[in-house]
Amino acid sequence: MTENVKEQLKKEGEKIARKSWFQEMEPVQIKIVDRKWKTKRGWYEWRKKVCYISGRQPIKDIIETVYHELAHHVEYQHAPNFFRRKGVMHSRNFKIIYYRLHSNIPLQKVIEGLYPYEHSRGWKWKDKKKTDMQWIPGKERR
C-alpha cells in the first residue's frame, strides 16, 4: 500500500471517527490487512470486536467495507434483542443499520425502529456483557 493510499485512508477514517454514532458505540478495532480473500472483502470478529478489511481493493471499496463491517459491529453490540439466525449473515436490520451509518446521527437513531428478531434456530447473547453467545436449537423443519 502506497503512502498516498495510507494518507487517504487515514483521512477517511478520521471522517468516520467524527460521526456521532461512532463516538457513542462500543469500541471496535479496524485493521486493514494486506490480504485478499476469495469470497469476501472483510469480516467482523465479534469475540474480539475487530473488523478486518482487505487492503487489496480500491480505496472506495475499502471505505464501503469498513462501513459494512461496522454495521455488523453495531448490530451485534447495540441492536435490541439481537439474534443471529442460522444461515443468515445479513438480516434486514443489518441492511437498515448499514445505510444509516452513512449519516452523522446519534447511535440511538441508527438502531431506532429496527424489526424484531425472529428467534428460531440461531445464536443469542448468553450474558449482558455480550462476551459469549449460545446456540438456540429451535424447532426442526421437516
Automatic annotation (TrEMBL):
Q: Which InterPro entries is this protein grouped with?
A: MetalloPept_cat_dom_sf
The record's Gene3D superfamilies line, in alphabetical order, gives: Collagenase (Catalytic Domain) (3.40.390.10)
GO MF terms held by the record: metallopeptidase activity
Q: What is this protein called?
A: SprT-like domain-containing protein
Biological source species: candidate division Kazan bacterium
